[in-house]
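Hey,
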Amino acid sequence: MSSAWAAPYEVEPDVDGELELFGLMEEGTLSAESWAALVALRRAGVEPERATRDTLHALPGLTYAEVDAWLRARDSGDASTFLTAAEARRLAPFLVEEDSGRVTGDARLLTAFALSDSRGPPVALQVRAGGVGGLRVGVLAVWARRRVGTPRREARSRALVVEAPGSAVLLPKFHARWTGTRASVLVGTYRLGFGQRLTLDTTALPSPEGFLPEDGVSPPGAPERECLLTSSACDEDARDADITPDFRWDEPFRGVAGSVRGGVGDGLALTLTGFGSYQGRSLRRSEVLDRGRCSSSGACSAPEVLVPVAGARRAQLRASVLPGMFREWAGGGNATLAVSPRARIGLTGWGARPGFAVEGAVLDFQPGARYPAGGGFGAVGVDAAWGTGPVDVFLELSRSFDSVPGEGGGWAALQRTVVSGVGRELEVSLRYYGRGFVNPYSGATSGPDVLEGQRVRNELGVRLRYLHRDAGAWRFRGQVDGWTWPSDGVVEGTAGLTRLRASARMDVLAWTGLQPSLRLDARLSGAGRSTLCARVERDEDAEPDEVAACSSGGRQGATARVRSVLSERVEVAAEYGQARVVETGTSAARWDGRALVEVKLRPAESWRVGGRVQWRDEDMAERTRLRQEVRTTVDLRWSVLEGTTMRGRYAWVVDLKDARTARMPPDEPRHLFQLDVETRF
């Protein structure tokens, strides 16, 4: 789930491609939520001459006051000079030009591999084109080498059987969209969201305003075990070998979405949006409940998944994700009445009905699955916004519905207040999510706690964010987030558990030759509570105050960074950080460390070269169990021709764990490659 904070980015990235954004997330500068929002914003594109107030505010580094000044300049016909040269360069990857009446588009080819791979690399191709008559189309094609077959039921063993993992060319996403003056229709795969993202949002954008075409893909993760079967069924060569995984993608809504807009009175505008979807969805094996495998106590386990091997033998599948486990019908809509660019009220409602696709099996969702068990589910909510002067107020109330026996849904509310000025912005958010609020398509802000597969659930919290920027001098970002559980979680007696998170970053920008920054962060789990030590045996006759108590977990860290722009073509940076970490259920603290040295070169206008050496050590006192590595990365960007850019990345990863004492043998040094070729026409 993504955060619902408007423009919640930790930094204002100066990058021009998704591969560089991925690098910022990989090194810890960007969170996964910020990375998803920035990638979605880049793929959607922002037309400065048409974009709404909320869309412009989603651009990194802009406050509402600055956006309002931009809109006033645009209305007066003088918006071209609003951004400085540095801001225009930084925001260029997110901005697109207005349709010119000719065919335009882009194509992007991606691949990734390691030197140790025994198979060819995975490949992904994204293509978008359009511009004539308001029509735009797009498709995502993927070559996967480890695709698991669709499960079927085997009556004799009562297990699920899938074909052995193999290669396949897939078209998981496609779309065609027509946009007119007052209406828009999309057929294919799409994301959509409204209001404060509480009732419905799958866009990852900070302020969604309807539906967007979806053709995104995520880079492969770290190398994984090559054989997807249990060890006894694997070839000796593949048993311990690693391989680059396939590209990853989510499963958005697939069907039809449309909207119409028009005036309904003096100064009033009404927007109506509707959608319908039929999508096959994957599940982790652990999320599937097989009612044919229930014990006498009523507990039902996950199904066994087998793969045919030599002869009549069957081997257990070790892969966790099963494709096409159920089919989902979904539909709903939104009506928004706008009084002004800063005042509106909206109503959103949707419903979904899952149906498992495995004939002969009685399946459902486990309590820990993302989706509620028992049948259909959905939500309805109302949202509103109002603003005057420097203040904007946002509110959304929502009620979820489901078919879980004895539950049936719950209430939730989210309220934000933003006070904005030029170069500064304060945001205060209040949230309440009932224990019965189960909404798999809510993107609202929440803590990282998960209750039965849901993050936006059983939470009462407040968050403060503040941004202060003096152009060319300094920049400060800080936030404090605290929340408590209003009801028990999975464990009885956990109601009232309180957690805190805080972070602050200060950047000094006055001198190009020396730009220091300091980042502080803290996390406290179970504030005001203690838990029994995981490794301490309890004497049954001991008094409560005699039992060793441990922290519920926490982290406090500091990172210092120095950046130096030596010239227009040379930039260097170095940083070092340490963190004190107490794991849940332990009494002793450990110290983590990380360091980074980075060089960026621009030898020519068409070339960019970057190099980075990063050291990371989780628990500097020992080298036996956690992550300890040195990663050396080289990035290359080359504008081959006008409109065509090639980006490549090489990473050399060395595991520093001690082979003599490590619980698991350290990985062999890895040589990883990524290639991204993008052309715009």
